[in-house]
Every structure is written in C-alpha cells, then in structure tokens.
Amino acid sequence: MSAEDRIERAGKSYHQAVYNGDVGALAEAERDLDAVEADTALARGRILHARFLSGRADDGPAPVEHPAELPLFTRAAELYRALGDVRGEAEALFWIGCLHQVIRRDTDSAVPYLERSCRLAAQTGDKPTQAEALRHLGIAAHTAGRLDEARDRLEESSGLRREIGALPGVAANMVGLAYIAAAQSRRADADAILDEADAIAQSQGALAIVRQIGQARADFRGAT
Fold first, then answer.
1. What whole-number distance in Å separates Cα of residue 188 and Cα of residue 128?
2. How far apart are CA 132 and CA 102, in angstroms?
3. C-alpha distances out from residue 100 to 103, 110, 131, 157, Å
4. What are the pLDDT digits (tens) for 37-48?
5. Cα angle at 92 between 37 and 40, to 5 degrees?
6. What pTM does this model have?
7. Rounded distance between C-alpha atoms, residue 156 and residue 29, angstroms
8. Is residue 16 exposed (0-12), middle (13-18) or buried (19+ Cβ within 10 Å)?
9. Cα–chain-centroid distance for residue 18?
10. Is a pLDDT exceeding 70 seen at residue 1?
11. CA–CA separation, 176 and 4 (whole Å)
C-alpha cells in the first residue's frame, strides 16, 4: 500500500470516528501513519547520507555529519520493529551501521548493526539490503586486515547484486576486490578486476564508480 493510500485511509478512519462514532479503525490508522513515518524517515536519512558522500567527492571542505541523520534512521528502525516489519528494520539497521562506518569511522559500533541487518535481510529474502550489509562487512574485514574474509564478503555481495541486476553495485564491489588483490600481491588479478569493473561501470553510466576505478589505478601505480 502506498503512502497516499495509507494517509487517505487514516482520513476515512477519522471521519468514521468523529461522525459515526466508530473508533474501531483508529488503531489501524495509527499503524498506517507509523509506516508512512518510518518510510519517510528512512528516505530523509538516505538523502542526508547522499549529500555527505557527494560532499566527500568534491574538492571543497570535508563534509560533516548532519545531526538529523542518525535520529532519522533510529526512528525508522524503532517504528519498523514495532510494526513487525522485519524487512524495513533490516534496511534501517543497515543505514545506522553505514553511518557509523562511513561517516564516524567507528567500525566497532557499525559491525553489530551490519550483522543484524544481514541476518534479518536474509530471513526476509531482501537481497538488496543483504548485499549492502555484506559489502560493508567486507569493508570492515578489509580495514581490520582480514583479507580472505573481506574477499568472501564482497564476492557474496556481488553474487546477490548480479542476481538482482544491480550492476553498478557489482562494479563498486570489484573496486574493493581489486584493492584486496593488490594487498595480497596479486597485482595481475587486481588489474584484471579493474578492467572488468570499468567495462561494467561504463556500460551502466556509473560515473562515480568510473572515478573510483581511476583512483584505484593511480593508487596501484603509486605503490609500485
């Protein structure tokens, strides 16, 4: 049911209560509005996160965390949990973990959220969220120097992304896999991975990923 449908139904419940004395539908109306609020909070939080990432890619001052982002994701998670919406809760938990990892650079705080998100997403068959959680768990493992684990996580994430046709996400994961290959002294593999990633990203118009691939190539040249 769309947000518009939920709001319309809540309005009808109001009229039934006020004019007909029928309050039986008010509880359901409140649940509808909680669902709308949860979806809106999650969407707003994601917009703020996208602004942070965009600012990080620019040449200007380093971006700072928007103070509303974490409260929005937290509110969404709370509402989804109360509604029994496991799929929604998994997505909100992912974004909480992502914020801790990407913006605050706090991997220890991020990992429990990412792990729970991954479990709940797998439970509900939510492959996009599961793939995101696996990617960021792979990043956490890479940061900690657990390269084999990082490779496994990113490859599992890529497999899910291929299944659902999220090819720009596959290319993004391959950038990480190339860095892992380079760290394991598999330079030829790293170059081949970047070549494939570039072909995918170019075909999908994923220009941000193309720039990441260019940066990776520059990093590898600088390391030789």
1. 30
2. 13
3. 6, 5, 18, 20
4. 999 999 999 999
5. 25
6. 0.91
7. 40
8. middle
9. 42
10. no
11. 40
> What is the SS3 assignment for 45?
helix
Nearest in space to 173 (alpha carbons), one of 205, 146, 149, 150:
150
Question: Over the stretch 127-141, which tens digit does the pLDDT of each residue have?
Answer: 999 999 999 999 999
Residue 153 tokens, joined: 């996580």
Residue identified by tokens 């997403």 is 121
List the one residue out of 191, 190, 213, 216 whose CA is nearest residue 202. Answer: 213
Whole-angstrom CA distances from 137 to 66, 118, 162 are: 23, 9, 18
* DSSP designation for 61: S
Q: Quick one: residue 2, left, alpha or beta (phi over 0 = left, psi -120 to 50 = alpha)?
A: beta
**Residue 41 to residue 97: CA distance in whole angstroms:** 16
**pLDDT of 143 strictly over 60:** yes
- Beta carbons within 8 Å of 35's beta carbon, 6+ residues apart: 6, 79, 83, 85
- Is the model's pLDDT at 56 over the cut of 80? yes
Pick 138 or 3 by higher pLDDT: 138
